[in-house]
Write a structure and sequence with these properties.
The protein is an alpha/beta fold and 554 residues long. It folds into three domains: 213 residues, Rossmann fold, CATH 3.40.50.10380; 181 residues, NAD(P)-binding Rossmann-like Domain (Rossmann fold), CATH 3.40.50; 87 residues, Rossmann fold, CATH 3.40.50.10380. Helices cover 45% and strands 10% of the residues. The protein is built from 26 helices and 14 strands. Strands 8-7-6-9-10-11-14 form a seven-stranded mixed β-sheet, sandwiched between helices. It has a five-stranded parallel β-sheet with strand order 1-3-2-4-5, with helices on both faces. The protein has a two-stranded antiparallel ribbon with strand order 12-13. Helix 11 crosses helix 22, helix 22 crosses helix 25 and helix 23 packs antiparallel against helix 25. The protein is globular. 50% of the residues are buried.
Length: 554
Amino acid sequence: MQNTFTPITAYGGRDYPTGYSLMNNGLLNKGTAYSDAERDALGLRGLLPARIFPIEQQVKRALRNLRAKNSDLNKYIFLNALQNRNETLYYRVVLDHLEEMMPIVYTPTVGQACLEYGAIFRRPRGLWITMKDRGRVAEVLANWPIQDVRLIVVTDGERILGLGDLGALGMGIPIGKLSLYTACAGVNPYYCLPITLDVGTDNQSLLDDDMYIGIDQRRTRGQEYQDFIEEFVQAVQARYPRCLLQFEDFGNHNAFDLLARYRDRICSFNDDIQGTASVALAGLIAASRLQGVKLAEQKLLFFGAGEAATGIGELFVAALRDEGLSEAEARAKCWFFDSKGLIVTARGKLPANKSAFAQEAEPLDDFLEAVKRIRPTALIGAAGVAAVFTKEVVEAVSQINPNPVVFALSNPTSKAECTAEQAYTWSKGTAIFASGSPFPAVEYEGRTMVPGQGNNVYIFPGVGMGVLASASRVVTDEMFLAAARSLAAMVSDEELAVGRVFPTLTNIRAVSLRIATAVAQIAHDSGYARVPRPADIEADIKQRMFEPEYPSYV
């Protein structure tokens, strides 16, 4: 994964396509940027218009065409087509205009793109592996043309953002996540593979749709599902032994089960559990700076108790234990409210992720009353239920705290627990707000409030880059804790002054480099690394980072 990588070396010296084949290879294509010498040497003469456009002018043309589109979905389709035909240009556009492109490439537009993925499907990207491929998953995996895959993002489409079971339509998520790995942390796209495991869907509207692109059956579950996942994992390990496997948007039960089953066995993690936890913890650390209190003084009330919420709780507990609190003291600071009410021991049998946080208290099924009883310093929404942070809820938590933390983390925007404007207005400008999807700045009584976006993009690209650079055998919670602290440390005093608890996205590569360095350091210190320790870990990672620049072919 060296910075010296070019499409030429990836294809074995000068053993790369020419003519039409070259122009149809998105990893290699330069479009109208080929020089006269390249056009002669590569059999491109006459296949392109005469004028040569350097990448800077190609970016201007792409932006002009993009901004002329009449909807974010059409912009998504345009960028997807650009990525397929010219990845270098695509990443140049995205990286140079990240704040503009992020809501299109990923949340919130990717949610709409997944809903309509069958309708907007133009050209295959990645692999669909289905239940009908059982017994020959390795054979299907071998159809991918790249021999040295280092990073796979895989979903089974059961819990896509806050939209639920989208089956095979969930492919937009792995594609989008891998794009962010490259744009934000410099992971070379050559090494990336998006995969959807199509095990069916329980979404009746999809099963009734004769245009649905997935297999026509209900979801496979139980032992048959587990055996299929095991076959997939073994096939990945056999073909790509140094690959990092990221599980994405699996249903709650499967997400926790897969993380527990594979986290110590292979190099893998679950971004919905561990990545979300890390970015939320970073926001809490930064918010504590803004409040002038210690992290251990926070008391959290979660709306939701799924993989994202309890993942945040577990990493928060780890952070407090690191600061000297006991396990019991740390867990006492985490309260959870789900569809049945407050999670308390009197509820009886609970899933393991919930029972770990069950409190000794009276049952309660009213969230506003829970706020008044528990008196939290922070509200964290992660259930995909819109508008649950009502005016009364925000006013109540504001009466308890001079600067309440209000994190509305559910995606996409339509699922946010409240908007930035609502949080600031209802709290009379005192709330420290962050959200999963972006919200614009808010003017409140002459002050400009800038909401932070608690997007996992701040965490997973850097973690992945650190793991790949060190060739770590596993991905540990210690790495995500270090990532959270690294991210929080990157929030400047100027950003805190306007209410931001996350750095600006324009600084994302510096953030990812710092996180990757911290992660690689842990891998080497803990004996997980499978490559020699470099003299300067940060410099080593920096020179590995992919830059979207055209190579010379002659």
